Amino acid sequence: MGHPSADSDSLEGPGVILRRVMGLWRPRGRVARIFNVLLAGITLVSIAFLVVCVALKLYADPPEELEQIALCGLVASLCVGFFFKASLFMALGGTLRQTVRLLEDTRVEFFSGDNNKLTRRRYQKLSRNIYYYGQMVAVPAAIAWVTCPLLSRILAKTDQDHHEVQRQFPVPVWFPLDVYASPIFEYMYVVQSFCVLVVAECCISTDIFFVHTMLMVAAELEVLNSNLSSLGHTNLQTKKVKGEESIFRYKTYDRRLTLLNGVQPLGEHASTEDTVHEWLHEQLVKSVRHHQAILRVVSLLQSAMDVSIFILLFVNMA
After folding, report:
1. What is the 3-state secondary structure (H, E, C) of 202-250?
2. What is the domain count for the chain?
3. Strand pairing partners for 249?
4. Domain enclosing residue 221, as ranges
5. Where does the sequence pass through the membrane (predicted)?
């Protein structure tokens, strides 16, 4: 049995380093877990900080413009959804790690040739492309959100030189102090910008994990289907040569296995055919075990996504 892990990507999926830096992926080891709790706390506090900002703004100093009220409601609903999604991802870290470990064991145990390796690599490449596309959308959007107040203030200054333009934050905020005075404004602006980037990357890194895992399950299903199709195209041929001699060959769809490479006495024909039937039985049993392993992976993944998918739908509706 081959081991594809030597030349294959990690089944933890793209963005695994980012998830570890943000404390979303629980590492092994006591010291690493303590450090991970600290990183996870920073991530959750960053998301919650934006909720606190808009909540205080709506409660203590509600804006008069309808656009500002809608913006505060949008930020609050999105960040609340992201907060619960990140919290659930951290809480279900054991189940997610067990899913990855079971999927990795399945790939190692049921590795049966270069065709399977190419199929799995194709799905891994698709997963990486989806991750890159997500980053290409999320990162520029977050940067634009952060820099928009600065750009609007610069443009307003050039058009209206007769009065001072009020400073703006990426997210509306109210605190019982003058947050628009320097250097408090600069500090608050940097903190909010950091929090916005954390929210964007947290969303991408958690979503891509589930997408990647589902693609890896789809790859295993395609590998299983390919193996079963190969067995379905089995063609056993017996050719008699010189009366009491025969050649017995076994053919499959895109590969050929010669059981006897030379002349074989007719008396050994039955035993050779039994050997082939036994081999076919072993392959069928292996395919059944492969299917059962896939079902276990799907069951674990479903248990982790039951609540997360509701949060995802809630955030997308917002």
Report:
1. HHHHHHHHHHHHHHHHHHHHHHHHHHHHHHHCCEEEEEEECCCEEEEEE
2. 1
3. 237
4. 4-317
5. 34-60, 66-92, 130-152, 187-211, 293-315
